[in-house]
Amino acid sequence: MSFKAAAIQMCSGVDPERNAAYMARLVREAAAAGAIYVQTPEMTGALQRDRQAMRAVLRGEGDDLILREGRNLAAALGIYMHIGSTAIARDDGKIANRGFLIGPDGDIICRYDKIHMFDVDLDNGESWRESSAYQPGSEARIASLPFGELGFTICYDVRFPELFRRQAVNGAQVISVPAAFTRQTGEAHWEVLLRARAIENGVFIVAAAQAGRHEDGRETFGHSMIVDPWGRVLAEAGPTGEAVVLAEIDVGAVKAAHQRIPNLANAREFSLEKIAGPGSAGG
Fold first, then answer.
1. Which residue segments constitute the domains of the chain, with CATH numbers given?
2. Angle made by CA atoms 226, 252, 247, in degrees to the nearest 5
3. pTM summary value
4. Of 95, 105, 68, whose CA–CA distance to 83 is shortest?
5. Cα(69)–Cα(79) distance, rounded to whole angstroms?
6. Judging by DSSP bridges, how do beta strands 108-113 and 95-102 pair with one another?
7. So which residues are the catalytic ones?
8. Per-residue pLDDT tens for 138-154?
């Protein structure tokens, strides 16, 4: 079965209300072009480095503006609306970096909380401690949809191939990677990581990204893209500016890729033994 997918590229600011209107305009453009699955980037609702200011606009699911707008759009346009992620206040007082898949009736089909936290110190002096604000998730998710099996990841998750492999082994045909990759890490690794995850698992990758210089001062890499199971980039946006990236996805290509390179079927369990050589610490 084939369907048209869209990856929405944004440059989200600090105001969720403005971002909701921004998102709605691009989602409507994608639906008008025939997309029935539309994905937005990580932190669609707001990119805000000031923790106090972020908490001031933070809401639970029942009151979140981005989620409400996403549900309204899905129902109005008859599409599967995937909010790549937004910050959500949890009942325990912590924050979730949470993605939502919404059906054409406006109901939430699936939630996914980002599992791997971006805690790094970059060469250019940037330091990020996502775990200082967010509670990591602990469950991978696959949603069974009329057009295929959809797996979920968010941004930094792309560096953990075991998450993608687990989903592929369990039937995922398309895996989502909404992101807000930094410009520095994106220039080095964004495309090669997405293509690698597609090739090694024989799946489609849909990756909606944040792009450009944001109100809070950060700079994200952009290059939203859709990749096929053979690692070919079907569609790609530029490094800055908004975009609607569209591609036709034929999930039959997943089975064909697995037949050509049956690495999932050929995988074997194995043990690992570390051998101490002469003069080593263990020898």
1. 2-266 (3.60.110.10)
2. 25
3. 0.94
4. 68
5. 13
6. antiparallel
7. 42, 114, 155
8. 999 999 999 999 999 99
